[in-house]
Design brief:
There is one protein chain. By secondary structure, the chain is of the alpha/beta class. It has two domains: 22-183, Rossmann fold (3-Layer(aba) Sandwich), CATH 3.40.50; 191-395, Phosphoglycerate kinase, N-terminal domain (Rossmann fold). Helices cover 34% and strands 15% of the residues. The strands form four sheets. The chain has a six-stranded parallel β-sheet. A hairpin with a 2-residue loop joins strand 2 and strand 3. Helix 6 packs parallel to helix 8 (256-270).
């Protein structure tokens, strides 16, 4: 067994956190505290399919319970168009109740008289989970009226939802206009750790990017071409790079608008200290199906009538070797169609390499986090982010509205 299973490397974090944190806030027994959590979890048949984000919120919830606070928890779930029972937070409340051993209640709505009555009846240490904030049209519009109604449910606002920190919504930004606002431990740790990847990484810094769209990650690619030592590109977006090089991509998923961006990135890499590495072989199939005919290519080219669905064995070895030599690894995006078992080998190889790497390893949420969890390797990385989009924007150098809105330290 790898020593990685019993030892986590030092967590590299950015120095300083310019916002007030929960540890600095005075919380009195019986005080109502509004907490923005991230319970945007997958549901399967009305039950929570993956409770990772709920478990990630437990330290903050437990800390407030120990101080005797009365907790009002709010979160969004998915992107409902109005009040949609299939996106209710009731299943998340049930999981939280089981994890805490009781003392958790589900509100019938986001705001309103019944919600206020429910919040007022809470005992110290108990929690009320509001309904899906996106049931309210004012949530995504950062409506002041909704923000004020939410703020009336607490005397302190704690934002612990890193996964929603890149959204300027009523429950992340608007409420800070009406309440003292501090960062929860999870949010603070996420910001410090993700910033640490670019602020003070142990070298070499190896970045692994996958997924489908170059347009989604071109800013990240540009930034890491300036900051990283090695940039490994896999997933469907590698085909935009191959098309830019004049290689055949067959019926592979190619983002047309990503080809020029990929060409620009290739040119930039030629003048960069960062090595840009693309797959050297591929696993291809005649259709997108687990039962499709498939074969491995000697070169990174796809013949007509075939599509690339995974990186090949030589690429897996090459990528794993680069990861093993890294001082810091950041990974975001699968290497192929890992949801289909015959095309999961590339993503599994990267996941195992990241889990076994001796340096600091940070996985940036999204599909890569889901893959890591499905392979049973989530507890073998230094940090598994709960917010893919927020992590990427932070790495791109953008300001996260949900963090910026908090009280300054």
């Amino acid at each position: 067994m790898s020593s990685r299973a019993t030892r986590r490397p030092r967590l590299v974090t950015a120095r300083g956190f310019a916002k007030r944190a929960l540890r600095d806030a005075a919380v009195e027994p019986g005080q109502p505290v509004l907490v923005r959590v991230d319970f945007n979890v997958p549901l399967d048949g009305g039950r929570v399919g993956d409770d990772t984000r709920i478990r990630a919120a437990l330290p903050t919830i437990e800390l407030l319970r120990e101080r005797g606070a009365r907790l009002v928890l709010c979160s969004h779930l998915d992107r409902p168009k109005g009040r949609d029972p299939e996106t209710s937070l009731a299943p998340a409340s049930e999981v939280l109740r089981d994890l805490l051993g009781g003392g958790v209640y589900q509100a019938p709505d986001v705001v309103g008289p019944e919600v206020r009555r429910g919040a007022s009846r809470l005992e110290s240490g108990e929690a009320l989970v509001l309904e899906n904030t996106r049931w309210e049209p004012g949530e995504t519009k950062n409506d002041p009226k909704l923000a004020k109604e939410l703020a009336e449910l607490g005397e302190l606002f704690v934002n612990d939802a890193f996964g929603a920190a890149h959204r300027a919504h009523a429950s992340t930004v608007g409420v800070t206009e009406y309440l003292p606002a501090v960062a929860g431990p999870l949010l603070e740790r996420e910001v410090r750790t993700v910033r640490g990847v670019i602020d003070q990484p142990e070298r070499p810094l190896v970045v692994v990017l996958g997924g489908a769209k170059v347009t989604d990650k071109i800013e990240l690619i540009d930034r890491f071409l300036e900051l990283a030592d090695v940039l490994l590109i896999g997933g469907a977006m590698c085909f935009s790079f191959f098309r830019a090089q004049g290689r055949s991509t067959g019926d592979s998923l190619v983002e047309a608008e990503g080809v020029d961006l990929a060409r620009r990135a290739i040119l930039k890499s030629e003048d960069s200290r960062c090595r840009l590495l693309l797959p050297v072989d591929l696993v291809i199939a005649d259709r997108f199906d687990a039962g499709a005919d498939r074969r491995e290519t000697e070169e990174p080219a796809v013949p007509p009538g075939w599509m690339g669905l995974d990186i090949g064995p030589r690429t897996r070895e090459r990528f794993a070797s680069e990861i093993a030599a890294a001082g810091t690894v950041f990974w975001n995006g699968p290497m192929g169609a890992f949801e289909l078992e015959p095309f999961a080998a590339g993503t599994l190889a990267v996941a195992e390499a990241v889990a076994s790497a001796p340096g600091t390893t940070v996985v940036g949420g999204g599909d890569s986090a889901a893959a890591l969890t499905s392979f049973g390797l989530a507890d073998r990385v230094t940090h598994l982010s709960t917010g893919g989009g927020a992590a990427l924007e932070l790495l791109e150098g953008k300001v996260l509205p949900g963090v910026e809105a908090l009280d300054d330290a």
